[in-house]
Each structure stands twice: as structure tokens, then as C-alpha cells.
Design brief:
heterodimer; A: 254 residues; mainly alpha; 12 helices; globular; B: 247 residues; alpha/beta; Rossmann fold; six-stranded mixed β-sheet; three-stranded antiparallel β-sheet; 8 helices; 9 strands; 36% helix; 26% strand; binds adenosine-5'-triphosphate; binds magnesium ion; nucleotide-binding (chain B); ATP hydrolysis activity (chain B)
Chain lengths: 254, 247
């Protein structure tokens, strides 16, 4: 950990590189960071107000609120699988704490998510979603989510070195996870008898917390957030430990 | 300082040589327990102590384990058995310009590359002018490095690496890059680092370079230390042995 701090400049540079390189060469460049969620918003609101006529009031906003943090999670995992194997030349030639590579992926996606809030908040206001003091809980929800995203991304990045097809499977795995998580549907539609099973999914209470804070203007469920924070902290320590153990042979296996 | 700069004790390194690499999940499950690889010992029982301020030359034929030893000391590879202790800030020159981003300019790559080598922003800024002057790239410093010739690329890589200002510098056959003038300059820089009391480990194929630059030398043969000691002695023995090999 202390060593990671010494390499903070590398982390900063990689995050900047990631954010810059993503849209490099496209005409609009960095504006895509904003345009992407904006276009998403336009498409969803058109589809669900005119084409599909969702039952739920303001469904497009509901979807938007859950989809943005979901993308933070899913993109971190998908890009995380490539973070070590696609930097093989670096890993084989230079010593640095290898955690820096997957962590830079998480941070870049975190920054992207935070920037997308600049679209989300005005959109919520325009669509007359009532914003309340519950917004104050947002940083906490984000922190708890990040406690899970970091170790997950660390683990998939190092696992991909040994199982290369994880890189291709990850898209499907995250899609399956997506449908098990109340992003496109509210959690109320889950049958009560399935609820305990459903609650095993740590992403569910997190997305629900975002929906509470941004969409319903309610405080999140503190109990489940608290448990997640506790579990997430353990998972974080475990993730770093396991990563350290498995990264030892990375330079020769990659 | 009483402790040595580098201490290697009973070091062994095993590689897996795969015949037919099962990399995918499906293959791994299918061929469970009969992974087709063979163990290969690249380093066998290496013991080496490098005192502070000493320059060590590492010689040996292709595949004798020189790069492997350097990578283990620099923590890129992990030892199978034994231990390695290093006291001081270390910088490794295995391949110049590893980690350059082709679309970034030379100047931007200095920041990126130096940060990968572990410098903080402030340290990089302090050294920026010196690095640029050393690389002698002129106006090209603000061009994307994908427009560089391979020599220019390596100049920049070398300039960054030697300005990390390490206590310990590990160099793997990179002194032979660039034109003659630049090679001279690299050698001068190495001598300057020696005078400032830095510890250097140098892999080379030229016995002459060992005699000129090094205090000590280690001769590796098939993963084992065949001889170690005073640079001139080892260099001569190695040169004689080379000459006697049928080629
Ligand atoms: N990642 C690896 N996987 C399997 N075998 C390896 C790996 N890296 C090196 N080896 C083997 O270890 C041995 C020593 O390699 P090494 O690169 O250390 O040699 P060297 O002394 O640096 O040679 P050269 O003079 O050609 O640079 C070689 O036989 C090589 O095939
Ligand atoms: Mg070599």
C-alpha cells in the first residue's frame, strides 16, 4: 500500500491516458464523455415515453439513475480483464506495483461516472424529479460501490492472465448480472419468496440505494449499506492479498 | 553503509516451458492434470553480494540466465526458491522506451515513462530540462513518438531511465543503441554515476566492456555461476573460453 502511494503519479498519468485515449481521434474528443450519457438519455426517454409507454412514471429517469453507476461497475470489470494482458510489454520490462493497472481502470471509470452526473442532475431537474436532502448520502453509496468494484477488478485482471477467455466471457457475465440487478426494473416487482435469493446479489442494494437517493428522494436502506460496507472492506483486503499472491508469476505467464 | 546494495542467496528460478499452451478455460478443463509443460531451471543456486558503489559485469552465452537474474533482482520476476535483498532505490533498463505511448509527444512520454519508473510529479519537473537536453532530440521533443526513428526512441528512453537518479542501476545490453556519439555519451554518463558512488549491474556480451567499466564480474553458464571475482580476471577467462568454443 505504501508502495502504491509512491506510484501515485503513474496512476494519475494512466487515468489521464485512459480518459484521453478512449475518444482519441474522434472529432468531438473529450465531449463524448458527456455526449454518451446524453444520447443514452435521449434514446431512452424517446423509447419509453412514445414507443413502449412504460407503466412507471418517469421511467427513463429511473433507468438513467441506475444505468450510470451500473456502467461504472460493468466497464471496470470488462476493461479490467484487459488491463494486465494488454500491457504485457510493460509488465515484462519494468517493475512497478501491478495493482496500478487495474486501479487506473477503476479510477477512469469513476471519473467518467462523476462527469456523467453533470448530465444526470440537470436531466432530473428538467423531468421534474424531486431532489431532496437524501442526495447527501450519495458519496457514501459511491464509496460502498467502489469498495466492491476495486477488488473485483483486481481479481478479474489477474485471473485473465491465467484464463485468457475471461476477457471474452466477461461481457456476457456482466450482462447476466445486469438482468439480475434491478436496473431496468424496480425491485418491487421481485416476488417476495425470491427476495432473499435476490438480496444475495451485492449490486442490488447498491443500485437500489442510487435509485432511492436520486429518483425517489428517500434515504437509502442504511442496514444493507452498512453490511455491504463491512463486507466490502473485508473483500478489499482479500482482493489485494489474492492479487499480490497471483501477480508473482504474471510476467512469465503473460 | 554496512549492508550490501544487492544480496542474492541460494536463488533458484524455474520456468514452465509449454509444448502446447492451454490458455482458455475450455482447454484447461479438458486437459486438467495433464498440462503439457516441462520444468526448466533457468537459474540454479545463485549466490551473489554486490557492495554499495561497485559495478558488476554479468557475462555468459545466450540463454545462460543473465536477463532472468536481472529481472529477479528488479522484482519483475519472482524467485522460485531463495531470496533477494536490495537496499536503495533501483532503476532497470531492460528495454528502452517500454511504456511509451505512440500518440503522445516526447515531452508527454517523459512524464508518463518517468512516472512508471516511480518518480513523483515534482521530481519529474525538476529533471525535465536535463532529460530533454540529454536526449538531444531538438524540436522533435514536441512531436508524437510514433514519428521517431528507433534510435531517437531509445535515446529518449535512456535519457529518462538514467535521470531517475537511482542508487542501483541494472542495465541489460542497452548500451549498444544509438549512434556512436550517443553511445559515448551513455558511457560517460555511466562513469559519472560510478563516480557518484552508484551501484551498477551491467549485462554485456563484450569482455572488453567488462574490463573497462566494471570492478567485479560474474560469469553465468547454463544458469549457474561458473566464475565470479575481479572483473579483469573473469573477463579474460570468459574471453579465452569463448575463443576455445567450436562455433
Ligand atoms: N518467460 C519464460 N518462460 C520460459 N522460459 C524462459 C522465460 N524467460 C527466459 N526463459 C529461458 O530461460 C533461459 C535464460 O534466459 P535469459 O533471457 O535469462 O538468457 P540471457 O542470458 O539473458 O540470454 P541473452 O544473452 O540471449 O540475452 C533461456 O533458456 C530462456 O529460454
Ligand atoms: Mg538477455
Amino acid at each position: 500500500m505504501k508502495e502504491l502511494y509512491l506510484y501515485r503519479e503513474m496512476l494519475r498519468n494512466l487515468v489521464a491516458k485512459e480518459l484521453r485515449a478512449r475518444y482519441k481521434g474522434s472529432v468531438l474528443g473529450f465531449f463524448w464523455t458527456f455526449l454518451n450519457p446524453l444520447l443514452m438519455l435521449v434514446v431512452y426517454s424517446l423509447v419509453f415515453s412514445f414507443v413502449m409507454r412504460a407503466q412507471m412514471q418517469n421511467y427513463a429517469m429511473f433507468l438513467f439513475v441506475g444505468l450510470l453507476p451500473w456502467n461504472y461497475l460493468a466497464n471496470s470489470l470488462i476493461q479490467g480483464t484487459a488491463s494486465l494482458v494488454h500491457n504485457a510489454s510493460l509488465v515484462k520490462k519494468i517493475y512497478f506495483p501491478r495493482e496500478v493497472l487495474p486501479l487506473s481502470v477503476v479510477l477512469a471509470n469513476l471519473v467518467n461516472y462523476l462527469l456523467s452526473l453533470l448530465i444526470l442532475i440537470p436531466a432530473l431537474l428538467i423531468f421534474k424529479v424531486h431532489l431532496t436532502a437524501a442526495l447527501a448520502a450519495f458519496p457514501l453509496v459511491l464509496l460502498v460501490q467502489t469498495l466492491l468494484v476495486i477488488p473485483l477488478t483486481l481479481l478479474v485482471s489477474v485471473a485473465t492472465v491465467y484464463f485468457r477467455d475471461l476477457e471474452h466471457i466477461m461481457g456476457i457475465l456482466t450482462m447476466a448480472w445486469f438482468f439480475l440487478t434491478p436496473v431496468i426494473y424496480p425491485s418491487e416487482i421481485i416476488p417476495p419468496e425470491l427476495k432473499p435469493l435476490f438480496n444475495l446479489n451485492p449490486a442490488a442494494p447498491i443500485i437500489e440505494a442510487y435509485q432511492a437517493v436520486f429518483f425517489y428522494g428517500r434515504w437509502p436502506d442504511w442496514a444493507s449499506l452498512g453490511w455491504l460496507a463491512l463486507g466490502g472492506s473485508f473483500f478489499l483486503v482479500l482482493g489485494f492479498r489474492l492479487f499480490d499472491r497471483f501477480q508473482r508469476r504474471v510476467a512469465e505467464e503473460i | 553503509m554496512s549492508t550490501a546494495a544487492i544480496e542474492v542467496k541460494n536463488l533458484w528460478k524455474k520456468f514452465r516451458i509449454y509444448y502446447d499452451r492451454a490458455l482458455t478455460l475450455k482447454e484447461r478443463l479438458l486437459f486438467w492434470g495433464r498440462q503439457r509443460y516441462e520444468d526448466f531451471w533457468a537459474l540454479k543456486n545463485i549466490n551473489l553480494t554486490v557492495p554499495h558503489g561497485v559495478t558488476v559485469g554479468l557475462v555468459g552465452r545466450n540463454g545462460s540466465g543473465k536477463s532472468t537474474l536481472l529481472k529477479i533482482i528488479s522484482r519483475i520476476l519472482y524467485p522460485t526458491k531463495g531470496e533477494v535483498r536490495v537496499n536503495g532505490r533501483m532503476s532497470t533498463l531492460l528495454e528502452l522506451g517500454a511504456g511509451f505511448h505512440p500518440d503522445f509527444t516526447g515531452r508527454e512520454n517523459i512524464f508518463l515513462n518517468a512516472s512508471i519508473l516511480g518518480l513523483t510529479r515534482r521530481e519529474i519537473k525538476e529533471r525535465l530540462d536535463e532529460i530533454i537536453a540529454f536526449a538531444e532530440l531538438g524540436d522533435f521533443i514536441d512531436n508524437p513518438v510514433r514519428n521517431y526513428s528507433s534510435g531517437m526512441y531509445m535515446r529518449l528512453g535512456f535519457a529518462v531511465a538514467v535521470h531517475v537518479d537511482p542508487d542501483i542501476l541494472l542495465i541489460d545490453e542497452v548500451l549498444a543503441v544509438g549512434d556512436l556519439a550517443f553511445q559515448e555519451k551513455c558511457l560517460r554518463r555511466i562513469r559519472e554515476l560510478q563516480q557518484r558512488g552508484k551501484t551498477i549491474v551491467l549485462v554485456t556480451h563484450a569482455p572488453k566492456q567488462v574490463e573497462d567499466l566494471c570492478d567485479m564480474a560474474v560469469w553465468l553458464d547454463k544458469g549457474e555461476i561458473r566464475m565470479q571475482g575481479e572483473a579483469r580476471e573473469v573477463a579474460r577467462a570468459y574471453a579465452d573460453w569463448l575463443a576455445a568454443q567450436p562455433s
